Amino acid sequence: MRQDHLSWDELWAAWDHQRGGDGDRARLHPLFRHLEQCPECASRYQLVQSAHHAIVESLGGLSGLPQEGGNGPGSAQPVAARQAPRRRRTVSPTTWRWGVGCAAAAALTAAVWQVGGLTRQQSLSASVRPLTAPSGSAGTGGSIGSRAAGNGPLQRSDARERQPAGAPAAVQERAGLFSTAAEPPPKANSLPASSPPSAAGNGVAGIASDSDVQQQRDGVNEKSAAVTGLGVANRAGQTQSAEPGGVELTVFGFRPAAQLRARASVSRAATAIAPLEGVRVTVVSAGTVVWSGETAADGSLHSVLSSTVPRPGTTRTGNPSSRLVDSTLAETATVVFWKTGFQPVVWLDVPWMRKTEGQGLHQSVLMMSMPDGQAKTATWWALPPSVPLDGRPGQP
Amino acid sequence: MRGGVNAAEFERLVREYSPMVRSLIYHITRSPDDVDDIAQDVFLRAFQAMPTFRGGSFRAFLGRIARNRCYDLLRQRRASSASPFLALAADDWPSAERSPEETVVAREAVAEVIRVVGQLSQVDREILLLRHVHEFTYDEIAAVLGMRSGAVRTRISRARQKVVAALERGQRDASGSSQLG
């Protein structure tokens, strides 16, 4: 037995090893023997274990972050809280009780957080319900969803394709400030003869709905609306029926960076993680298709605004926004359909929206057509701060 | 693992490593709003980069991508000042199998540790996170951070000592106050 006491590094090495980590077992064996016979080192070893658990408590929690799927592999709980470490019972029962207590701590804390998260979620949901009530200011009215459980990356590309103009009348319909509605795919946006495999072929089936989560996100992002001074009406009615192969389309409006994000949920039962190709996304503003594109095999979605298309906002709002969009017509977005742990998302960055934000009123429609013929539309209005969110568009 | 990976295999990887990636992103950006954006971006990039993956630790590969993405983002905008540690209440520390006095001591000690961990440098916190929460090896941490393994060991040793000292201090203070009480 060693006569001197163990160093802190040795104690940590012993603890790392005991947790199932790395370390030379042969080299550590004498340390454990020493721990069994030296009360002082055993006490310090207990401190090391406590420090470890405290570190895990400090860093392992993801408070404020939506959790992924309970306490299983998808949860945000620390590994130590999910996996039973390989144990070597070389310490006192008191120490083990402490360790067990700490493990229970993690579980209890997770439960508390989850309960707290649900409570907060309900609170937030309630807070965003009176969306259509007159607010007098955009900061209090519009809600912007952005805290999705998966928001697609924006990718720019030089790839371009011209898209036919002319939006289907259906997509111009509006149900309240925000609506989603199943639509048959319009001819203008129908798939080409060489369209990619059907949704079923891509493993898409059913619809995932998590409107509660969406409401929470909307509520959270009211702050964003307040910050930007831009009221954007959205949400309500996101939950769609579960037609096989369908999509649920949610426009969550603008973030401070004024990126338009549309979250399109497909079934969690989908088996394909690969990007879904053949999804057509169309943005209509003021009755004109201003953006349209179809996903390629890699999920990328490229399009370009036609220079002949009237600039959005010029006719309805009188805003001289045309000069703002001359410089940048190319648009790209990525549509990536993930199955695991993510909500599929369409993330569009619409420069004319960004550049005209807060200057006038737009009605815009985003439509997504799935390869199997299903289509969804979402209508949103971008309102300047002076326009109350009374459920109807109006002149600023 | 080397080279390309099929969708099903990658799906499994996403499931397995998503908590780690999200956790790392969260603790770097301190912005819950950004976690899912970046996480999806990380996995997308990883998926695209799989053919070039040369083997080794996949989670270190992911961690490195996540870290780079986070710092890219932080460079583009100012990091939020909200501390992820504030929301962690010492009251959440359970009192299972402890006397009330022991519970008080534990809470005080954990609160002190939380404070100290919050004062560590960003890199030290990442190291502690990867080591203690996600159980990375030193080599994996070194790969994620772009450091030598020895440097990681040195930094984690110092950080741990600060934590232990804080724990001792917290326990001592709590014991003193409980005795006074």
Secondary structure tally: strands of chain A: 11
CA-CA gap between termini of chain A: 84 Å
CATH architecture of the largest domain in chain B: Orthogonal Bundle
The level 1 CATH classification of the largest domain in chain B is Mainly Alpha
Estimated structural class of chain B:
mainly alpha
| Helical fraction of chain B | over 70%
In terms of per-residue confidence, which ranges of chain B show pLDDT below 50 for 5 or more consecutive residues?
79-98
Entry keywords:
heterodimer, A: 396 residues, alpha+beta, 17% strand, disordered C terminus, B: 181 residues, mainly alpha, Rna Polymerase Sigma Factor, Chain: A, Arc Repressor Mutant, subunit A, 7 helices
Folded structure, characterized:
- The complex is a heterodimer of chains A (396) and B (181).
- With 396 residues, chain A is an alpha+beta fold.
- Chain A has eleven helices and eleven strands.
- In chain A, a hairpin with an 8-residue loop joins strand 8 (330-336) and strand 9 (345-348).
- In chain A, helix 2 crosses helix 3 (39-60) and helix 5 (93-128) packs across helix 8.
- The longest helix of chain A has 36 residues, at 93-128.
- Chain A is elongated, with a radius of gyration of 27 Å.
- With 181 residues, chain B is an all-alpha fold.
- Chain B has two domains: 7-77, Rna Polymerase Sigma Factor, Chain: A (Orthogonal Bundle), CATH 1.10.1740; 90-178, Arc Repressor Mutant, subunit A, CATH 1.10.10.
- Chain B has helices at 7-29, 32-49, 58-76, 100-119, 122-133, 138-145, 149-180.
- In chain B, helix 2 (32-49) packs across helix 3 and helix 6 (138-145) crosses helix 7 (149-180).
- The model of chain B is unreliable at 79-98 (pLDDT under 50).
- At the A-B interface, helix 1, helix 3 and helix 5 of A face helix 1, helix 2, helix 4, helix 5 and helix 7 of B.
